[in-house]
Please model this.
Amino acid sequence: MTVRSDVAAITDRIRERSKPTREPYLDRLEAAAARGVHRSVLSCGNLAHGFAACAPNTKAALSGDTVPNLGIITAYNDMLSAHAPYETYPQLIRKAATEVGGVAQVAGGVPAMCDGVTQGQPGMELSLFSRDVIAMAAGIGLSHNMFDAAVYLGICDKIVPGLMIAAMTFGHLPAVFVPAGPMPSGLPNDEKAKIRQLYAEGKVGRAELLEAESKSYHSPGTCTFYGTANSNQMMMEIMGLHIPGSSFINPGTPLRDAMTREAAQRALAITALGNDFTPAGKMIDERSIVNAIVGLHATGGSTNHTIHLIAMAGAAGIKLTWQDISDLSDTVPLLARVYPNGLADINHFHAAGGMGFLIRELLDAGYLHEDVRTVWGDGLRSYTIEPKLNNDGTVSREPAPAVSGDEKVLTTAPKPFQATGGLKVLTGNFGHAIIKTSAVKPEKRIVEAPAIVFDSQEGLNQAFKNGELDRDFVAVVRFQGPKANGMPELHRLTTVLGVLQDRGRHVALVTDGRMSGASGKVPAAIHVTPEALDGGAIGRIQNGDIVRLDGEAGTLEVLVTAEELAARPIVVPDLSANSFGMGRELFAGFRQLALRADEGASSFGVAA
Model:
């Protein structure tokens, strides 16, 4: 099946726009790859340091240039559920490498913070920039010049985008991303959300809230709602950076371990020492990036990726814009309903047919580029499968089921849940913003109401507690952008605004900050660009201004004249409290250097 003409046209314009940056990137990649096995350029002293801790047989193997060495970049820590399973992966990978005549070493660790822990806390102001720290930390690990390929062990919000930036920066090396999988289903996400709202209204206490949260997040593995972490896994698979079928296998299962071993051996098979050399930066191209965006729309994925995808693509010399993402949203149908875009969780999605079913439907309807390179060695059609565990512990793959196991969770391209994807760019005199509409009921997508302006999320929460918000309004929460305070997620506002919406009030949020990857039922214009601290119009909004957010038409306007808006001064509040505590002082340089949200919000200029 050839790709649809509208998808092809968007891909072509990205390719044409990217030529001035993509071509030099590929030239650098070719030059790096042409140097051959990089251990050959190390002096004896360099190399001795590189394998000093290894067993004698490993030292002997690494002394020459004929045995492939696999670098492991790991985001393991044992505090966070999603990353705790990675504790045993290096041992599995080393053994798998030995079985096929290779070697594996842990090249380095990267930090992995959890937005669920830091949500609404000072540490959240480090969250977005942790992506850049992760990219740099991975780069340090790989800079030892000891490796023929790399496997990346990471799963959650900023970790995978940071690792992806590193993989593209070291794009002369093959790269395989290895997931850990979601935790088994616990308390249904909608029940958890109800308890949160009852707590916000003072109808249940902290004990009841903690019990509900603990039943939701209860074991090793990724959280089961479809936020940024699970959107990451979908994108890595649909871009061909996972081995087929591996995204949503639960941790601690024989199939999960078998696929981890298989991923390591596949990474060793695609080095320059073999006949199937697949450098990651050449494998990932404009078609791969478009496929990731298509998958994001078709599944109602995370708003955070409107920032991350631009930075990830930029690291490979590819110039992606919000308009590209929005235009693809207009043509790609929504095929999955996973919380908050439905009641099901990611395990239900996987059981209904999962990635294999989804990719087949999108390929057959022409929404995906089939002729891309993948780590599996052929086009994307090989990902339209369902993995099984053989009796001997190996993995087999069967065709994905012909019929959805649950049509309320996963549907076909001819019968989508809605005709367009879930993410859209809003334009108007605010500048540009992003909205996720897939979880918002159609009758709630247009709000016109007076603005109530806040310079912090704490201000909005306090106004709700004081009983000041029981009316129709648009909450304008500003000075939350990358330069102001690192662009924290404002997910805690979802509960408050959800309570008011349930009371029959017409409410919406407009902010230059982020929402969670689990952006929900309240219409929210987020990532407003330019941000208030960068001279954006959001800094000129006053209480009582009429704001119109139209998620259907894609507009965001404050109903005042251009002359009046331009004449208003931007009064910057005291932001000094954002500069200290919980490590925020260490990130002053990141805030100063940060690009705009629509440029990827990177602090080291990787956006093309």
